[in-house]
Structure formats: C-alpha cells, structure tokens
Amino acid sequence: MLISILFSIKPQTPLPSLTSDSAPGAGQILGLATDPSSLRFSTIGEDSVVRTWVPKTRKRDGISVKDGKGNALKNWHCQHEIQLMKSELTDDYVRSTPYNGALAFADDGSILAAALGQNGTVHMIDPEQGFITASQHGLFEGSIVAMEILGRDLITLSDSIRVHDLVSDQLRYSLKLYKSITRMHIIQKMEMMHLAINRKSGTFAVAIPMRLTPPSAQELREQTIPPTYSGLAVFGQDSQVPLLTECFETAVSAIIPTEDSEGFLILDGAAEIRNVTKKGTQPMTTLAQPTSDLQLDTVTDETTGDLLQMIEDVEDEPEEAQPLSPPVAEDDDDTPVVTQQELSGVFDIGPAFALPPLEEMFYQVAGLFSSKPLEKMELIDNVVEEGVKFFDIPLEEKTKIQMVNAPSFLGYSPLSAEITAFAIDQREQIDLSTPHPLPSPTDPLYHNLLAPNLWPSPAHLPHFRPVFERYIAQMGEISLFFTSLIAEAIGLPADAFERFFDADQQHKLKVVKYPDLKELGLRPEQQGQGVGPHKDSMLTSYLLQVGDKRGLQAQNLRGEWIDCPPVAGTVVVAIGQGMEALTKGVCMSTTHRVLSPVYGGGPRYSIPFFQGVRGSTRFEELNEVGIGEIKEEIREMRRKVLESVGGRLDDVEFTFRGGGKAETLGEATLRNRIKSHVDVGERWYPEILADIRAQQEEERRQKSLPVTPPAES
C-alpha cells in the first residue's frame, strides 16, 4: 500500500535527494501518518513542510475515468502544504536540514501533530483547514524519533518516552532513556527505535535497542557500545510500569497494532513476524517484567530516579549529573508506616468463617509493611516454568554461558562441577545475581564477583531473563524486610542490619537440577550427594522447592537430619553464618544438605536465593561490633535451648569467628567460591587456589583425615 502511494505522489511532487546547497524541494520524507477517520494521510519532508494528501477522482475532459470494472480511478492530491520552519535558501541550507521528523493524527482526525528536528516543539495542525492552531514547547527531549496520539494523550519517543495529556496540558509520566541510547546518531535511532499504538486496548508499544553481552574494554574506552538486540515494552496511558516486556535476539524492524485484537505484530531483523498479545484470557499485567532491560531512567514532574540499567555509563560526570539510585533502593531510608485503619481493612471484614485464605491475608499484610507490594503467585509460577525449561535447552547453548568463562562465578555449571565438604556435588545449575557493571582494574579483587549475568539466549528462552531479574529484585526486598523482622524479634531496631548492606547490594540466586540415582548410575540403596552438609555464608537464604520431591534436610541441635518436604506456595528460610556472628549466636546458622532424588523418581529442581552482605565488612565488625547489644533475657533463652539438648552437635564448623587469611567478607566469599568451583579457580585464580589446597592439606593432616585433594583439571 505504501509503495503504491509513493509512486502516485512522485509524478506530481518530485522527491529528489538534495544534490546542491541551492536545490530546495521536498527531499526525503521524514515521517508519514494516516488519518484513522478517513483516507487522508500526511507527510513531512526535510524541507520542513507538512503536506496532507487526499484521494481525488481522476477526470478527463470533465468526465470520471473508470477501470474495466466500472470503478472510478483516483489520484492522490496534495490538499495542503504547511510550513513549519521559515528557511532562507542559503549556502547553509543542507547543513541545517533536519534528519528527522514525526507526525500523528488524533483518533477522530481533528488534530495533526507535527514535530521536526530536536527543538522540543510540537505543532498542532487543523488538517481540514491546513494551518497551525497551536505550538507547544518542551514535549520531547533531543531528536524526535516517533510520535502518536492515543485518546487525549500525545506520546513522543526521543531521548525519553513521554506521555502528555493534551486536554489538561499535563505530563502524565516520562521515562528517560539511558546515555548509551541517547548518544546514538539520529539515523541509528530512526532505524532501531519504534513506537506503535493500539487504540482498541489503549496501549502503546516501544522497541529499544539493547545489548546481549557486556561491552568490551575497547568499546568502553572508545565509548562505542553498539546494541545487539531489541527489547519491547507495552505501556498503558496511566502508568509508567510496563504491562508487558519481551526480548528479541535481533533488532526489531517494525511494530504495528493487530487489526482485531489488543496486541501488536513485530517484524524483527531475522524477517520473522511475532505476535505480542495477551496470554490467553489473562490480563496483560500478569506478564509484566522489569524495565531494567530497556535502560530507562524514570522521570516525572519530580524526578523519582532511574530504573535499573544494563550498560553502565562509562563517562565521568559531575556529581550533580550522576544518575539517581535505582528504585529498588529508593525508599530504603523510609520506614513504611502502616495505620490501624489499613490493618483493619485486611482483618475486620466479617466473621472468621468469611475471611479470605490465610495466604492472601499474609500477602496483604506483608505488602503494607514492605516498601513495595509483594508479587502475586503468577511470578512464582513463571520462575518455576522458566527455571525448569533452562535445563532443556541444547548443551551447546548452556556451554556458551559456562561459569568457567568468567571470573565472576556467574553462569552455567555442568554436573559434578562443584565441591562441598570435600566431595563432589551431583547437581547442574546456573548462578545469577543482581546486575552490576564490570569492575574497574583498581577495585579489590573480590569485586570480580560483581559483574553482569551470563544469560541464556532469548532465541531459546525469551522470558527467562526478565522473569528472573524481577524475581531477584522482589526477593531482595523480601529478604531486607525479613531481616528487619528478625531484628525486632530479638529486641533491636528494625534497621539494625542496614549498615551491613551496600546501596546496590548484590544478592545471588541459583537454579538447580538434581538428577536421580538412576541417572547418576548409582544403585537404589546408595545415597547420592546433591549438596554436601554446609552452612550458607551470609545472613539469610530462601529456598523455593519445585514439585513434591524430597531431598532437602536440615540438622537439628541433636545432630539429627530432618526432612524438609516441599510445601506449595512457601520458601524455606535458612540462617547464615553472618547472621549468627552479628547476633552473637542468638540466631544460629542452619546446617543443611540435599540428597539425590530416589532411584527412577526423576530429577528434583530448586531455586535458592541468597541475601548478600556488604563485601567490605571486616570480620572484627561481625565478631566485635555486631548489630548492637542484645538483651540478656533473649540471650538467656538461647542458652536454655542449648542446655536442654546438652549442647549442639553440628557436622559443619562455624567459620565466621575469624576470616583466616581473609580480612573482609568479600575476600572470604571469593576464597569460598574458588574452593567450591575448582575449574574457575584454576583458570582465573591459580595462586589463591594453590594456597587453599595447601591449607586444606594442612587441615587434613591435623585431623588425620585421608588425603583426597580435588582432582586436577
């Protein structure tokens, strides 16, 4: 359709490329928009002129010309020409020619909005009369890329995504794109950034270029960080939280709304057409994902801070120009205030038999005390689904993101790659963490643990990354909330642990598959080690058990191993050694292990989340300073519990009384990772690994244990 229109225009209004400084004309068409209420359409050219086009019956000698079927033939006629910028035809004409322009019709065709260049001005045109009725400034930032009118709102895509109410002349919201996007040339932006609206659903879709891998050192030095794929977000008019996000392995080439539904059709760089729409009859909000993938900075009338960024800015900027903290940490200094009226709204709703399920009431109460509402169970379902599907992708795809390829200990670990309690664990897994940029050469060595994640290809798992980024962010908030409850439970202020967290605290997560005894080649009566006996290092951990297969066991004070069977809709919370050290033993660390699934029972899956602690924390802070003085009556309660069982029998030694050769938690964590992942240690930290092996040898000698060092790779 578009090609035939342009060929019809060409004989009447030539569209040459400008070949000389004194050769004015329409030149290139910078933008085109169709009137949804009629056959009218409009173009904007690099001559800064908006033209409206309407069909006109073709006549010869005053008589309508018809085709062989008797239908009247029509030509496209230029109805109006509206000059946006007064331009002198000088030698500077070509240099001042804009690269970009955008047009948008209102739903009823009564308004035509036009923008040109990067002056932030949008002209409102009466398309029927052909003149400018108003010009509004400050409606976009940088160079205009695309523009649409949806209902009463003007949506612009430039260096930000802005939604402006034309009736009240108020900004609804604005999302500022990160610098790696805004620094692109306008021609690149026009090719890789796209905007489309769906009038039926009242939504709009935006495609933004993104990167699949971290920038190389040369790209960082030269500040050339080209995008490698596209992210898509679907927004409503009233909220800056996206209703849906998708990742595409190649760049998105075009977006259009679906004709009879509330979704969008996407054409990508692989010449494939994708349908992005509701999932069955579920609302779009159940598919919501984080906007960190889109490298957006949130801006409203009062700036609220930038969203999580995938590519860190490489240029040193003045302090006042630095991005604000991500919204995850935005309210960390504010203690949520919950009124009696709000609690009454949860509990005082009728007799006991009429109350909603306990799980629903828990989410309502926890949501009041949390800085952000807790996610519904749909997110948990998505996490489980995506986590299990990861192990079904081809081995070569998993190998591309293998942990041994990076010094961060993030990525995929094949079966038998990890060691716990001097024995090999029979598990396959992927390790993820909260996103961080690559460390600088001057950072401490343990900062290698802070790095971008290694994600599976979106071509195989398009939803994996956004689902797990959201889950990690949510679990980070829940873990901070839970530790505040622990503090209050032992008589301390709710913020007692806060100084042991970084502003951008790293938390970790694993997605784990445990093969059953049959798959491991063991006999039914044998006991396989999924994970050997151990204590988690930091404060708390939260294990999401998938399905109904047993395997997790915790050791009680008598030294007995107790099954922890899966319970749907719950996580198992374990106390780490950092918590035990900070509370002077009041909160004792949990010794636990995982047994391989029974013979022929199939694999077991689990998704543990590990709350992080500030890596620069020194061991004397843990053991001497702690989190404050715990009341004697609470300490006495712990002593009585220990006395009642005759003291604690524990298969795993508490190691946080001192750091040994490590002075900080970050250094100790790095050594523990090297000890567990020998292959990564051999490649990236051979000197530290050699020191660890010597230390293990000495420990065995002192304990008269048989010497069975980890095998050399």
Named CATH topology of the domain at 375-435 and 471-660: Jelly Rolls
CATH homology-level superfamily of the domain at 375-435 and 471-660: B-lactam Antibiotic, Isopenicillin N Synthase, Chain
Order of strands across the widest beta sheet?
Answer: 11-12-13-14-22-23
Mean pLDDT: 79
Question: Class of the domain at 375-435 and 471-660 in CATH?
Answer: Mainly Beta
Specify the biggest β-sheet.
Answer: 6 strands, antiparallel
Secondary structure class reads: alpha+beta
Family: Belongs to the iron/ascorbate-dependent oxidoreductase family.
Region (Disordered): 315-336
Protein name: Fe2OG dioxygenase domain-containing protein
Domain Fe2OG dioxygenase: 505-613
Task: Please describe the topology of this protein.
Layout: H1 2-9, E1 29-34, E2 41-45, E3 49-57, E4 59-60, E5 63-64, E6 74-83, H2 93-96, E7 101-105, E8 112-116, E9 122-126, E10 131-136, E11 146-150, E12 153-157, E13 160-165, E14 170-177, H3 179-182, H4 186-192, E15 194-198, E16 203-210, H5 217-222, E17 229-236, E18 244-248, E19 252-257, E20 264-268, E21 273-276, E22 296-299, E23 305-306, H6 340-347, H7 358-369, H8 377-390, H9 395-400, E24 411-413, E25 419-420, E26 423-424, E27 428-433, H10 464-489, E28 508-514, H11 517-520, E29 529-535, E30 540-546, E31 552-555, E32 561-563, E33 572-575, H12 577-582, E34 591-595, E35 604-610, H13 619-625, H14 632-644, H15 665-676, H16 678-684, H17 686-703
Antiparallel strand pairs: 1-2, 2-3, 3-6, 4-5, 7-8, 8-9, 9-10, 11-12, 12-13, 13-14, 14-22, 15-16, 16-17, 17-18, 19-20, 20-21, 22-23, 24-27, 25-26, 27-28, 28-35, 29-34, 30-33, 30-35, 31-32, 31-34
Helix pairs in contact: 6-7, 8-10, 15-16, 16-17
